[in-house]
Amino acid sequence: MRDHDTMPLPPLPRYDDAESVRRATGFRDFLATRRSVRAFSDRPVPPEVITACVEAAGQAPSGANKQPWRFEIVGDPDVKREIRLAAEAEERAFYGGRAGDAWLADLEPFGTDWRKPFLETAPWLIAVFEQRHGTDEDGGRVRHYYTRESVGLACGFLLAALHHAGLATLTHTPSPMHFLNRILGRPTAEKPFLLLVVGHPADDATVPRITRKPPDRIMGIR
Hints:
The protein has 222 residues and is of the alpha+beta class. Helix content is 39%, strand content 16%. Helix 2 crosses helix 6.
């Protein structure tokens, strides 16, 4: 077996079965309270909260540990305004003909349209980029593996961390999102993956009444 550098596994807490069940069901029930919010308050959120949650996202597993992600945190009002204008231009094209009738019909219960004021109202935006390859210290190209899967895992960590911090979130994916590279000065090797809106919900915020698939529709046990 090839030698490689290792370290002891950091200690995991030891729970009895009853405590494991309690913690698992409690976490399930907590995440069930997370909803996508489109009405945000402009109430400030300390940047330390956001950076800690992004650091939590950075603990996600990734292909060959290449960590092929970049998180650009945006709080500057002028930059948020520029992002909103660019995103709404893409959304106007989407709702104006780019999306098919079936897609628009599926979106109708959510009451969405091309207008995206939350991109300015919320105190923070997090633009997540998928790094299709990296560079070494000499500027050489470094191959990345399973980048989309890895970044998706990191975004899951990030959403859970932000919810744990008591913040509302919205996953926003105007298509295409190449305007984020231009506005945020990111190289073309980085592909915009997700624009995450983060903050406190507005006092009068509402969300669509939805249901989740029952457990037997999302899992099987053999």
